[in-house]
Amino acid sequence: MKCLLAMLACCLGLLLPIDPAEARPGKTTASKVAKKMHKARAKQVAKASGKRKALSFGAPQTLVAEQQPQEAGESGLRGVASFYGKGFQGRKSASGERFDHRKMTAASNRFPLGTWLAVRRLDSDLCVVVKVNDRMHAKHRVRIIDLSRGAAERIKMISAGLALVRAVPLSGAPESDDETTCRAAFAPKQTAPETDKVAPPVELVIPPETVIDELPPPKPVDEGKGAPFEAPWESRNPFSP
After folding, report:
1. What is the pLDDT of residue 24?
2. pLDDT tens, 150-190?
3. Are strands 127-134 and 105-107 parallel, antiparallel or unpaired?
4. What pTM, to 2 d.p., does this model score?
5. Residue 56 has what pLDDT?
6. Cα–Cα distance between 81 and 78 in angstroms, integer?
7. How far is Cα 235 from Cα 241, in angstroms, rounded to an integer?
8. Mean pLDDT of all residues in 69-88
9. Do the Cβ atoms of 146 and 117 come closer than 8 Å?
């Protein structure tokens, strides 16, 4: 039996790297080799499991992350959305509220706390109204919003994990959080066409014309009592004696 263990140890010693300090005579035993094999196997399993996790969640993220978010404006913010679920249940959010994965809430670093948002998927036109009550980690630069699990179920992104969305801030708390209210936020605003301002017409009032049929007769002048004619140069100086 000891011979078999020694042969096994020799074979494994050729395959596994052994520290020179441990390769001294009498130190390389079967138990140490088995322990080294166990550690190497554990590292391989951990590395393989990490790769599987990266592939399972990284594949859709690679496809979606190519679309960079746009700047906020009247038409909202366009970018990547994810969700966080039951693992954060009951934890205190940045706004002081306790997180409930069933409520229509979200975490975002792009909008103020307390903002109501209409979030719509760009590929399926599904829409949900959420309230921003938490902040995301600073490392999330591509993702613009993390939805609660309840909100993620509304727009059917649980299986995908990520989705391209557009988020539009609302003026206040909506009366209802149904899809009709949500889609109304994305409807194009109808503005009245601008017309040139024309001043109202001014009515000119023209008095009626006075028609004179005949002129009045001249007044008779009495020749004997006419006023004497006095030339202007003959006018008396009031200061003369």
Report:
1. 52
2. 999 999 999 988 999 999 998 888 877 677 778 888 877 66
3. parallel
4. 0.49
5. 33
6. 9
7. 13
8. 73
9. no
Per domain, the residue ranges of the chain are: 2-58, 77-184
The Cα-based distances of 200 to 1, 184, 191, 206, 210 in angstroms read 117, 38, 24, 19, 31
What are the φ/ψ torsions at residue 52 (nearest 5 degrees)? Answer: -65, -40
| First-to-final CA distance of the chain | 174
Structural contact between residues 143 and 172, judged by C-beta atoms closer than 8 angstroms: no
Please check the confidence at residue 132 and state whether its pLDDT lies above 70: yes
Give the 3-state secondary structure of the chain. Answer: CHHHHHHHHHHHHHHCCCCHHHCCCCCCCHHHHHHHHHHHHHHHHHHHHHHHHHHHHHHHHHHHCCCCCCCCCCCCEEEEEEEECHHHCCCECCCCCECCCCCCEEECCCCCCCCEEEEEECCCCCEEEEEEEECCCCCCCCEEEEEEHHHHHHCCCCCCCCEEEEEEECCCCCCCCCHHHHHHCCCCCCCCCCCCCCCCCCCCCCCCCCCCCCCCCCCCCCCCCCCCCCCHHHCCCCCCC
| CATH 1.10.1200.10 correct for 77-184 | no
pLDDT digits (tens, 9 = 90+) for 112-127: 999 999 999 998 889 9
